[in-house]
Amino acid sequence: MKKYILLFFISSFMLLGCQKPYSQQLHVVSPEAFSEKIENTANAQILDVRTPEEFQQGHLLKAQNIDWLGTQFEAQSKQLDPTKAVFVYCKSGRRSKEASSKLKELGFTTIYELDGGFLRWHSEGMQSTKN
Question: Which part of the chain is the Rhodanese domain (predicted)?
Answer without folding.
Answer: 40-130
